[in-house]
Amino acid sequence: MKKYTFLILAFIFLIASCTKKSAPTASAVKAIDGASVFSHNCARCHGPQGIKDSRTPELPTIALDKAGLVHSITNGKNKMPSFKDKLSADEISAVADLIVSWHKK
Length: 105
What we know:
Cytochrome Bc1 Complex, Chain D, domain 2
C-alpha cells in the first residue's frame, strides 16, 4: 500500500510541475524608463529637458494631455515623424508620462 501511495504522490508532483506557469505580476515586469527612451529617441530634436530651440515646441509647456502626446508621438505631427514603428506602445506611454510630469513642475 505504501508503494502505491508513493507512486500516486510522485505522479501528482510530476503533473503539478508540468503545469503552465502563471504570467508575471505587474511588480515583476520591469518598468520602462521614459527618460531613457526620451534621451535615445527624442532629445536630439527636443533637447534633454524638452526645450531646444524655436524649431520645436517647448514640451514642458505644450498644451497636450497624455492622450494627445501619445497620439502625436505615435503618428507624428507637422515635421515630427511617427514613432509607431520605432517604439512600443509602452515606450510611447512612458515618454508621454515623462512629458506630463514636466507640466507639473
